[in-house]
């Protein structure tokens, strides 16, 4: 677009000119000398503002200049669009009426003067019959503002306000008068900067209204900027102001468009100021004036962003311009011909912009092609044809215009992120059969098209004859005239300037072509069109080579040559062309490494043989003098090798410690007649224990191969360089040291077309897969060194042939002949666990012993790896018996549920010897199952390079040896409750120590004996007694001995607890059985503990929790340790949390028995015996702070007689308890059947035991009819039984009456427990 006149193709944006603020850059009108003398000076007499607020507002306006905004209709973020220019206090406007030039007299006094941009004015270059030029377009874009925005200060000082306001009015009226005299309709707007803040602006409203009326300013064009505005408020004010002014500017261009349409509607050709008299000149026809009016209307509509109306007017002007009355009537030799073509291009470009703005992309592509075809037909028919460089220059320019329009439009669907190559057509044309070029492609397509036309332009320019290239001064007049009708020079130089005869100057076609190709390549790369981008790079390099810019050629093609996909896809012709072009450039700049690499690739027969080329790699650097000896490294895949290597193992399987046979075949595909390539070394890399095989070049009879035809076969002897080295420690045998490196000598001369085969014996060491991975070819000459890496794979190792001799081969029928499977050497070292158990238990240290037995014929240098897998794996340690006594034992590390220990040295285990390893595991708290893996890696002294592995997998089961259930049964505390109404007790409460030893617990008889004393000293609250009954069972797989059982009690700080074990929990120690109780698997044992609890104060009435743990100390009957000391293990079982000291009333029942007296003789010598009595105590506890009343009644029964209140009322004070006593005499009758006792917690029958009432012979259960009722709530309270009592199935209380016989009496010391 640079070839078009400035501004002719720019988008139309209203011009906003600011006046009154000092600025660094001042707008100067671009007027010619003739117009500058007639220009109108618009000047303000007041000084320019220099305040921070004025500069901030002006800066914001300038930052929102829309000159570079995308020209598309999707950008709705802006409510206004202005082209902003700045002037301090004056600027020039072009004259509205041009004066007559000197020497020209008006034919009559009433002659009308016209605009200097009109063809009616003699000073215009369009006079008398021109259509339109770029000066009129620049007039509205850069010379005449649509809005003049003036900045002034508004002084608030009362003494100066009137004076300043008058000066401001005078200056504004002066500006308005100058604008009116100029004839332009520029809108005037004013910004006043007040020195008052926004809270005081109401006081200046009258002054603003007076200024507005005095200067005839529109209310929408006067703005006030108070002082002290924040940047955000100032920006908001500027946004609103510019939005308002944009509406004013739209009205300005709407008036101009209306005026243009009125002129066209007159249908009259205006008369020029002076009629043309020279030659055959004539004025512009009516059709020409209609084109002007349509063009103006379209331009003004474009200013208003009415792109639909603008497109209609542009199309109408375009059709009239190319109609028979205008362009068809203009002779091609006339300057008006090129002016008309220029106007057609401008109209077409603006039509394209309107279509792109409205999103009509396919229509824009069609419109571009339509203008190109129509102008081509017109130029070919009426002009100088389309077979000259001028037409190709226009085609290139037209393609660049389209690319620039797409870039300026910034279509969102064309961003590189979308990866769109072209846009889909609009809905209204989807049904049509569109050609590919009728779709809108990205800008790379258009730049590439321009490059093609520029190349054709250069070819046509270079095809011109020498006579046409001579300047006019050295050519005859007839030839000059003939040349003027031969070549189209529209917007391009004449032939002698296009391609001068002397070669100096002229048009730099290569630079323009390279510039377009680079832009196109960039766009194709952004959209991952790598092949197209590579093609453009090659074209660009050829253009640079024409101008011998070798450095840029190397920079452009180096990465493409290394990374291009032409080789793998088979485009070898392109690869060859690129390689020769890059080699020429690299040789010219002295890039020795690149030259060597290219020559190494071009040796292959895949490329066309060039005549007169040496094809000798040793002569690659002829004519190049590098400073240092080059060393080139070529990685796999960087270029096509001229050799085809393959490797084959003869056997599919092998064993560690043995050798296997392999063959390396290298076929040279060098050009026929090329010089032999003598390699320095060949290195084969393997995976597995075999590291690499290195073949060194050695010429001589010893290494001379057997040859037959095109095959050369050599048997290479390999030696291990580290074979004599001794390995004494296993720790030194890491991965790098275990890699085997073998060396051999052979003749490494590669002849063109010859296959060289090397046979090698490779020792196998480790089990697994050994595979030939890569090949390195080393070449060395006096001039340079080269090394190429090749990977064995399906593409390179295409031959599965095994060479039996030079004349016979066989095919290896394996899928992967590159690899051999190495079987492990069977280990004879054994891992034994003689004392392994199926179960180990929680809370005991686990000691596992293993025996490492060496059944090998030689000594073994071994190391041990241990892995323990499972949840919450512990840290263990390893002890090697007999080694490192006194040293710290190595411990494992835990990572992600895996505890592992690596590299425990076992030293050398001699043949037929054993070593004991002890694994120590600390006590484990939770039951779990672990997987134990033990790996012993050892090396025999006779084969230190071959590792042997022995593995043992074991399962470690850790279980809980015991499980238990629990019952907390209530008991009657013997101590009385303290009274809140006892004066001495209240005083004792205040002196008690509530903080000392709270929540502690004691055990044993001593603690129980001292409980009363300690409690009285420190705790004065209510007390309760309980019995915790535990039933524990052994879940072990063997007999265990329980040494001791106990409980740990933890309560709140305000409660003190003591506990004692009941007699008979454990049997006494015995010399034969040992201490404790022998527990067999699945055996249930019961233990009971008495708990005494007391609160610290009477004020604490909230319930308290009781946290108890059941502790079992036990040992194994047959310990696994060799030590004589028996290890006592402690297992702690959690007990469910219980709640003590509830706030609800509680009724307890306890019973005691009065034994019968001995029999006595009566008077009649008969003996009588006093019957046994049962004393029933009913205790009611009131732990609340309320006065409660209870009714107690005892119903008569035929089972017993009783003495005591049959019906009574008990009044209980707060925090108190009372008791009622009954004496029960069982009546003689057969005992009833024993009811089945139940427990509230499990509701299951309890089996009778010797310690349980009812278990012996005789005796009976009686059921007293006790009823306790809360008289306030009329609620019956449940009676809770204690020792010697139980509940029946109906919730009543049963009392056990022992038999009268002596053998049936209850044993002394035994306690009777009943379920609650």
Automatic annotation (TrEMBL):
Residues 988-1007, 1226-1258 are annotated as: Disordered. Signal peptide: none annotated. Residues 1227-1238 have a biased composition (Pro residues). Residues 336-604 form the Trafficking protein particle complex subunit domain. InterPro entries: Gryzun, TPC11. Residues 632-1229, 1259-1298 form the Gryzun putative trafficking through Golgi domain. This is Gryzun, putative trafficking through golgi-domain-containing protein. The lineage of its organism: Eukaryota, Fungi, Dikarya, Ascomycota, Pezizomycotina. It comes from the Eukaryota. PANTHER family: FOIE GRAS, TRAFFICKING PROTEIN PARTICLE COMPLEX SUBUNIT 11.
